[in-house]
């Protein structure tokens, strides 16, 4: 180690948020007047700026080459040592995520911290912590009562709310298994089978057994956190104090996020509820991780380090010796495969809860064969009649269509002009409400032209339909139908357009709950999670697209969406037995719809897994995508193909290449967004280790290739490990 310029100073490695693809991949070196513990937050100078950093032990994989001139190293500005350091488990999680997802540890670590910390001085932070400590000390926080012995009492009383809950035999059995086995667990429970109650019981038992224990409960969407937060708070805050349950998601203000994060980091929060970002929450006494709706694609990050919070949850639980429970009515095929019997190589324990709690049967699935309907039919007559019948009975219906706006395209009847976006390989969508053409990819929005821009013809027509047009159409069709009170039917649309303003989603949902709405129209947004008790009919207007998608995961996503949507129907016991799900399809005999009709996820999963195995696709192989963006499609593809050739000529990669397939570069399915051309290259291997080793070796080649004069038009590139969209 080089001698310090000032006697007594020590060399300190610090992670900062380095720009992606800068060559500063590892920790940076600074001098510190006193030794600083690993995991301590510090402020350090970098160039002209001062940044937040984390002291990182030099033996970690992110350690720098110490070929530095000690005289050029600068001292750290301040250590934020009022805050306890981030522990070695947290640091190991960051190191793993960075290396697995091919990013720098600095990027992952700093992105995992609340943004407000970045701008705080050590004085400000110390003041903030003092204020927190004072607030915690003054109000009457319930003291920790002597706890029940959780092993002898698997379902301890955890406050007044728990006393009224009677568990079903299936719930009790799942909870017993949870206590007896190490896991990981996959809770395979039908919609309405009471999975949340199981999560709460398992959480209660662990918290009661240890006065410090913490649990992390993840849900896929911000919209679902308020409902869940209310339930957990009702159950746990009476016993453990108001600070005991906190949320962490991107919909919170920076101040709220920092507060929750500090509560988790200090151990004051016993339960942290959050979206995928919460998987990185600092929780020094973590003993349980729950991943609800584990199949949901939003657990996978779409930018920066493209991590899967579900997969990191499994890793983190093993790292910390915590238990982990994934839950879903339609598990991802990966998790389903992992939970096959241990004798066949399964690693997760599957806990099954097939029955709905006190809510009768799952809805009857009806298929409308659209081949036998008039050509321009949007809502088939029998479906319309069924909706009208429900309105007359005072029941609710939910109709969904996966396309927002009025019509996906505007077309000239004379010259075949279509409303293409000039900057993207997509059409601009016609929104009738403000008469605009909007691109859903780059955001370009223009007034609808009075006449065809190409030929001047004034007859330009909407083609196809989105939710806005569906809503209008339904209003016309149902104009004469009356509610039991003699009033006309009320139709409400919920999609990204109607919920743009903060609070509108909540107020629209409230309208549905109070029964003011008879028909709810929307995108898949309404099919997820919300507990609509009085809906007895759910209809998918045009679900067929996914059956013929080039993405091999499309059927899996469709099945899960339809199962979830079906689960929205008949959650109220009194109406459950009349509830129905309607599918309008040109493929009524498709095996996916057959399995759906039987509510038979295992049969669907078995057929999908068989296909995947035959085609050597995940979970039977491992994939990564390298995506490149450039000024031209040639440049984007050229860069990827050059990097692929360069890998083939490197001798140390030859052995690895024998174990994997590099496909030629192709344009992405959305080849152009906002005038940027996009291409991708798929890398596939039967061995996860071989793929990982190849990717980390290939990084340097990609950097090098990017600097090649032939790749001048390349804007950026990124690796996506275990991609969800291909
Ligand atoms: Zn025209
Ligand atoms: Zn566009």
Name the shape in a single word. globular
> What is the radius of gyration computed over CA atoms, rounded to a whole number of angstroms?
28 Å
What is the residue-averaged pLDDT?
Answer: 87
Fraction of residues in β-strands: 15-25%
Largest sheet: 7 strands, parallel
Strand order of the largest sheet: 8-9-7-10-11-6-12
The total count of strands amounts to 28
Task: Estimate the helix proportion, in percent.
Answer: 25-40%
Total helix count?
A: 19
Distinct small molecules = zinc ion
| Distance linking N and C termini | 47 Å
Question: What report would you give on this structure?
Answer:
The chain is 31% helix and 20% strand. It is α/β, with parallel strands linked by helices and 726 residues long. Helix 1 crosses helix 2 (105-111), helix 1 runs antiparallel to helix 9 (309-320) and helix 5 (169-180) crosses helix 6. It is globular, with a radius of gyration of 28 Å. The chain starts with 9 loop residues before the first strand and ends in a 5-residue tail after the last strand. Residues 421, 423-424, 439, 441-442, 444 line the site of one zinc ion.
Q: What topology emerges from the helices and strands here?
A:
Layout (H helix, E strand, L loop, with lengths): L9 E7 L11 E5 L8 E6 L2 E7 L22 E2 L8 H13 L4 H7 L10 H16 L22 H4 L5 H12 L4 E5 L5 H15 L4 E5 L6 H16 L4 E4 L5 H13 L4 E4 L11 E7 L16 H12 L2 E6 L4 H6 L10 E5 L10 E6 L11 H13 L2 E5 L8 E4 L16 E3 L4 E3 L6 E3 L12 E4 L3 H11 L13 E4 L9 H10 L5 E4 L12 E6 L13 H15 L11 E6 L5 H7 L3 H14 L7 E9 L2 H17 L1 H7 L3 E2 L3 E8 L2 E10 L2 H19 L7 E8 L5
Parallel strand pairs: 6-11, 6-12, 7-9, 7-10, 8-9, 10-11, 13-23, 14-21, 14-22, 20-21, 22-23
Antiparallel strand pairs: 1-2, 1-4, 3-4, 3-5, 15-19, 16-17, 17-18, 24-27, 24-28, 25-27, 26-27
Bound molecules: zinc ion (2 copies).
One zinc ion binds next to loops.
């Amino acid at each position: 180690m080089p001698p310090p310029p000032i006697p007594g100073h020590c060399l300190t490695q610090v992670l900062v948020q380095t720009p992606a693809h800068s060559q500063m991949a590892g920790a940076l070196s600074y001098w510190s007047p006193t030794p600083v513990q690993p995991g301590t937050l510090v402020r350090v100078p970098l160039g002209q700026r001062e940044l937040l950093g984390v002291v990182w032990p030099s033996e970690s994989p992110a350690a720098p080459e110490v070929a530095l001139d000690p005289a050029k190293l600068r001292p750290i500005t301040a250590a934020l040592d009022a805050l306890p350091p981030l522990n070695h488990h947290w640091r190991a999680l960051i190191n793993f995520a960075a290396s697995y997802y091919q990013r720098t540890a600095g990027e992952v670590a700093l992105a995992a911290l609340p943004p407000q910390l970045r701008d705080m001085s050590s004085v400000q932070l110390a003041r903030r912590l003092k204020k927190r400590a004072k607030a915690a000390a003054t109000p009457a926080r319930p003291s920790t009562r002597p706890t029940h012995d959780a092993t002898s009492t698997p379902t301890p009383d955890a406050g007044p709310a728990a006393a009224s809950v009677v568990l079903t035999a299936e719930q009790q059995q799942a909870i017993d298994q949870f206590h007896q086995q190490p896991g990981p667990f996959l809770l395979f429970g039908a919609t309405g089978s009471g999975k949340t109650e199981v999560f709460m019981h398992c959480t209660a038992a662990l918290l009661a057994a240890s006065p410090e224990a913490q649990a992390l409960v993840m849900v896929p969407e911000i919209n679902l956190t308020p409902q869940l937060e209310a339930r957990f708070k009702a159950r746990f805050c009476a016993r453990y104090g108001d600070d005991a349950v906190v949320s962490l998601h991107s919909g919170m203000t920076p101040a709220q996020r920092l507060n929750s994060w500090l509560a988790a980091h200090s151990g004051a929060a016993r339960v942290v509820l959050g979206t995928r970002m919460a998987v990185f929450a600092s929780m020094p006494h973590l003993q349980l991780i729950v991943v609800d709706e584990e199949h949901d694609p939003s657990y996978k990050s779409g930018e920066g380090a493209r991590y899967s919070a579900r997969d990191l949850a499994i890793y983190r639980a093993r790292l910390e010796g915590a238990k982990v429970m994934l839950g879903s009515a339609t598990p991802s095929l990966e998790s389903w495969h992992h939970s096959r019997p241990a004798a066949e190589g399964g690693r997760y324990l599957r806990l099954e809860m097939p029955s709905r709690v006190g809510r009768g049967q799952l809805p009857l699935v009806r298929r409308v064969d659209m081949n036998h309907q008039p050509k321009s039919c949007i809502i088939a007559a029998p479906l319309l009649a069924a909706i009208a019948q429900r309105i007359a009975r005072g029941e609710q219906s939910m109709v969904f269509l996966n396309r927002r706006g009025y019509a996906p395209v505007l077309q000239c009847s004379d010259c075949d002009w279509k409303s293409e976006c000039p900057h993207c390989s997509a059409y601009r969508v016609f929104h009738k409400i403000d008469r605009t053409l909007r691109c859903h990819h780059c955001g370009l929005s223009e007034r609808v032209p009075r006449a065809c821009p190409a030929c001047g013809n004034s007859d330009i027509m909407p083609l196809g339909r989105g939710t806005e047009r569906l809503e209008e159409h339904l209003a016309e069709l149902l104009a004469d139908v009356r509610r039991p009170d003699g009033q006309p039917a009320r139709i409400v649309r919920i999609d990204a357009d109607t919920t743009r303003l903060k609070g509108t989603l909540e107020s629209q949902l409230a309208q549905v709950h109070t029964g003011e709405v008879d028909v709810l129209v929307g995108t898949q947004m309404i099919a997820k999670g919300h507990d609509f008790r009085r809906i007895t009919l759910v209809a998918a207007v045009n679900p067929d697209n996914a059956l013929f998608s080039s993405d091999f995961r499309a059927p899996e996503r469709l099945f899960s969406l339809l199962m979830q949507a079906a689960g929205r129907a008949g959650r109220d016991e009194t109406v459950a037995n009349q509830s129905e799900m309607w599918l309008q399809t040109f493929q009524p005999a498709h095996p996916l719809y057959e399995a759906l009709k039987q509510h038979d996820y295992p049969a669907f999963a078995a057929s999908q897994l068989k296909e995947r195995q035959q085609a050597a696709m995940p979970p039977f192989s491992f994939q990564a995508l390298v995506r490149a963006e450039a000024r031209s499609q040639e440049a984007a593809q050229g860069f990827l193909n050059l990097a692929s050739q360069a890998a083939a000529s490197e001798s140390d990669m030859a052995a690895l290449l024998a174990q994997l397939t590099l496909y030629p570069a192709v344009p992405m399915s959305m080849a152009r967004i906002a005038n940027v051309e996009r291409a991708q290259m798929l890398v596939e291997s039967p061995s996860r280790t071989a793929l990982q080793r190849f990717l980390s070796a290939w990084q340097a080649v990609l950097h090098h290739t990017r600097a090649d004069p032939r790749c001048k038009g390349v804007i950026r590139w990124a690796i996506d490990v275990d991609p969800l969209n291909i």
